[in-house]
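Weekly puzzle thread! Below is a chain. First person to post its structure in token form gets bragging rights.
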Amino acid sequence: MLEKFQGALIGTLTGDALGMPVEGWTGERIRREHGVIDSMLEARLGAGTYTDDTEMMVALAETLCQNRCIDPVFLSKSLINNFNENRGYGVTTVIVLNFLRLNNNWEQAAFSHYPDGSMGNGACMRIAPVGVLFHDRPEELIKQATKSAELTHGHRLAIEGAKLQAMAVAGATMTPACQDIGAKFVEDLLKDIIEPEYKISLNKLLGLLSSPHDAEQITKILGSEMLALRSVPAAIYMFVRFNGDFKKIVSQAVSLGGDTDTVGAMAGAMAGAHLGLKSIPDEWFTMLENGAKGRDYIINLGEQLHNVWQLGKVG
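Winning reply:
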């Protein structure tokens, strides 16, 4: 179980780093120039470096390690303290974080840019720590995923996407590494989904699993864009479709194109939670950024989260 906690967090970092160099590329361009992204390419901060996806995941993990649950005030401070704009934050997230820095009003931060809140996947890409820590407490999982998302993303589809991704990570954590992941994994997720748009998308996902489809068809049906609704289902599809093979799951997720770092990070979180830390290919693992809050620090955060879970001090 310790390796599953660590695998979910390092899986997030790995998928993020693999997808960073081709973020925003179309799937067609990726296929034309690289075929499949299966190695750490040079990126703006160097090969193996991470983006805002991992940086915000670290902030969330630190919050849970210290508080054992989501405290919006503490999470706000953690996100601000970790904020490095060079990591490639989106415009909306920058506005929200600056609002949090300047205003003592976390309840309104998520609506500081869009009146109805963002529909983006920023709350989904960072949610792996919630998924592993509350994997065996489904009601608390939903509660904590919602609290985490609501701080920065007020739209119902963004919040539902964060809940769905957290549930997927939890399901992966509870599934033994030796056990295959199949359609039942998606069917179980459908039981707890509320928003009809996600029910439609997950049912389309089940249809795709019934016969082989190429990347172009997958992105047309499920998407791979920055919207939560158009990226979380795609990451889940890749996890289920290539279950048991961390490298293939993440490589295929990144190679869809679009929001490559985030789809890769979410697929990597699920794969790492299922298969554990040692499933990450050595050639990727050794290249992961390892500075002050890099690979080793994140592995330690996974251990701390595992300790919190073991001691029963959650919530």
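Puzzle host: Confirmed. Bonus trivia for everyone else. Residues 27 and 257 are 4 Å apart (CA to CA).
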